[in-house]
Design a protein that fits this description.
This protein has 17 helices and 15 strands. The strands form three sheets. It has a five-stranded antiparallel beta sheet, with helices on both faces. A five-stranded antiparallel beta sheet has the order 7-6-10-9-8, with helices on both faces. Strands 12-11-15-14-13 form a five-stranded antiparallel beta sheet.
Length: 642
């Protein structure tokens, strides 16, 4: 019994120890598997991030090249997005590889190269904006950016290779550990249902994990297929002609737009040489294609003119596995653009001819007031040149006494976008200052934004001298008229009175303002107003002279007769520019005329009465003489017969 007990006890102890050791070993293996899984996961993430990092760098380079080729802002946005994604991935890689010093050193090298690459691409974009596409192409042709990208690829590929090796080793280690754990768990299953349940649980969890991985892989595959489908749609529907040729210049891919312009279906392009599809292709253009492929020197752009169309071709090298390069071709139909540019050029020539032919000095400015164009008359007048006058150089020909005021007023007009008008002197080439009337108007978009300003300077020196002479003449005339014992007045060509002499105002006793422009009619005798207005209207219209008489009310209410005479002042074309007139008091003459008329009437009546009496006497004498018997002779004092 003691031996049986000892044997059973030993067996149970052995089984218990076996179960315990199996459990310990299983737990140990499970821990090793989980650690291996974490290491594998880290390796996979690092591998995926490195792959995505390279893809983002390619996206950035594609956007960069697209902008250099076209100058369109839509290519800059992918470049910026790729820039942001790259640094997010670098930060995640730094976190993933924090426990691996060697990988951290490699990542730092990649990070430095990436910074150099983005700096280079930014410099090229800036060069494209400031110096143009050719300068940017020359910068790309130096190959500095390509060398940086090659170094990035090299270091990244080394890291990827190292990560793949580590992934393979760790996967092998993980699989070995898995098999050991499976064997251990199988042995434990013989001794303990608990171990089997534990192993079953672990297996079930692993299957679920693998299922999740498979689901993610399927989703990733779907996303990749969708991206490829979108890319294919873009390729097919792009309004540009797009083609890819292999190193032998055979068509590998061509879109419908380019095939249609070639007059052949896509199927007649694929696999055929470029010279077979387009036998009329210029030899120099074909030589440029080969040069781009052989030297990988960025890209070239050419304008190709056909019978009816004009094409802008962009050709660039596309690296292929093995070190050789294929050829990417983008063709843009620029016929309409070229025609518009020609029309614009002709329009600009017509505008310049017109602007140089007008008598004014003309100029145009940017919205900020920076003058970028003058007509030829400006240079002829000022004796200056474009370099001196560009921008705000016009202040050199301004009167220093007027300059500060003019600049302030001009800047105020620029700020609100309203028309500008002012008069100031400008120095002529001989040093003489001549006055100019300056006007500038803003040209605006539909939204009100100012595009540019157009201004003119009109020489008004002679006009100002004439106006000054007119003012002096007017003042002299006023002094003369106010010294004369007459009522003087002046009117506009349209008949409105705008001046009454001091004598008129003192005579009527009313302010001058109350009698302008037609208030003077109110101081006429009511019986004379309608007749006077009709005569004045006819004179203004040119159908009658202004020569009339009317009664004018004095300040004490008494009316006196005046003789009125208006004389028109005409310009060299015979047009009336002003009326001048005077009123002469004829009241005494009128009264004398009335008295004289009365006297004439009375004397005429007396004479008529005398004549009547004489006729009666003559009749009486004739009757006597005719009835006497004797002869009667009448003689004068000298005895002569009458």
């Amino acid at each position: 019994m003691r031996q049986l007990w000892n044997r059973d006890t030993a067996l149970w102890i052995f089984l218990a120890m076996a179960v315990l050791l199996t459990a310990i070993a299983g737990r140990y293996n499970v821990g090793r598997m989980e650690a291996s899984e974490r290491i594998l996961q880290t390796t996979r993430v690092a591998h995926a991030e490195l792959t995505a990092l390279l893809s983002d760098m390619i996206d950035a380079e594609t956007g960069h090249r697209g902008y250099i080729l076209t100058g369109l802002d839509e290519y800059v946005e992918p470049f910026r997005q790729a820039d942001a994604r790259v640094w997010d991935r670098v930060n995640r890689l730094r976190e993933q590889l924090a426990d691996y010093p060697t990988e951290v050193q490699q990542l730092e090298s990649v990070e430095r190269l990436i910074r150099e690459k983005f700096d280079e691409m930014r410099r090229t974009i800036a060069l494209r904006d400031t110096a143009g596409m050719d300068a940017a192409k020359a910068r790309i042709g130096e190959g500095h950016g390509k060398r940086i990208m090659d170094d990035i690829r090299k270091v990244a590929e080394e890291m990827l290779s190292a990560e793949e090796e580590r992934l393979e080793k760790r996967a092998g280690t993980a699989n070995a550990q898995y098999r050991i754990a499976e064997l251990t768990n199988t042995l434990a299953a013989v001794f303990s249902i608990g171990i089997l349940i534990g192993l079953g649980y672990l297996n079930r969890r692993e299957r679920r994990r693998r299922k999740r991985i498979a689901s993610k892989l399927a989703a990733s595959k779907t996303e990749t297929e969708d991206a490829l489908a979108r890319l294919d749609t873009f390729f097919r529907q792009a309004p540009y002609g797009i083609a890819y040729l292999d190193p032998e210049l055979r068509f590998v891919r061509v879109n419908e737009t380019l095939a249609r312009e070639h007059g052949q279906p896509i199927s007649d392009h694929l696999g055929r040489l470029l010279t077979e599809v387009l036998p009329e292709l210029p030899a120099d253009l074909l030589a440029d294609y080969r040069k781009v492929m052989e030297t990988d020197t960025g890209f070239i752009q050419r304008l190709v003119r056909g019978a009816d169309l004009i094409w802008e071709l962009t050709v660039f090298a596309v690296p292929e596995p093995g070190g050789r390069c294929g050829l990417g071709v983008i063709g843009l139909n620029v016929t309409e653009r070229q025609q518009q540019e020609e029309q614009l050029r002709q329009s600009e020539e017509r505008f310049r001819a017109m602007a140089d032919g007008i008598p004014q000095l003309a100029w145009m400015t940017h919205p900020d007031g920076h003058i970028f164009w003058y007509n030829q008359r400006w240079y002829d007048y000022t004796g200056s040149n474009p370099t001196e006058m560009e921008g705000w150089g016009w202040d050199k020909v301004h009167d220093p006494a007027e300059l500060s005021r003019v600049v302030s007023k001009w800047k105020a007009a620029l700020a609100v976008g309203e028309p500008f008008e002012d008069t100031f002197p400008l120095r002529r080439h001989d040093g003489q200052m001549r006055w100019h009337l300056t006007r500038a108007v803003p040209l605006k978009k539909e939204d009100g934004q100012v595009v540019l300003w157009f201004g003119t300077n009109t020489d008004i020196t002679g006009q100002r001298a004439g106006e000054q002479a007119l003012r002096e003449s007017t003042e002299q005339l006023k002094q003369l008229t106010e010294g004369m014992p007459l009522l003087m007045w002046a009117c506009k060509p349209t008949g409105e009175c705008d001046y009454l002499s001091r004598q008129w105002v003192e005579y009527t006793g009313l302010p001058e303002a109350d009698q302008l422009p037609y208030g003077w009619l109110d101081v006429l005798h009511p019986d004379d107003r309608e007749r006077t207005a009709a005569i004045w209207k006819a004179a203004v219209e040119g159908t009658a002279d202004c020569d009339m008489e009317y009664r004018l009310r004095r300040q004490d209410g008494a009316y006196r007769w005046f003789a009125v005479r208006g004389i028109p002042l005409r310009d060299h074309d015979g047009q009336i520019v002003r009326w001048y007139g005077c009123c002469t008091d004829i009241e005494d003459r009128k009264r004398q005329a009335v008295i004289l008329e009365q006297m004439v009437t009375e004397r005429t009546a007396t004479l008529n009465r005398t004549n009547a009496a004489l006729r009666e006497q003559q009749i009486f004498l004739d009757a006597i003489l005719n009835n006497v018997a004797e002869g009667i002779v009448a003689c004068d004092s000298d005895g002569r017969l009458k």
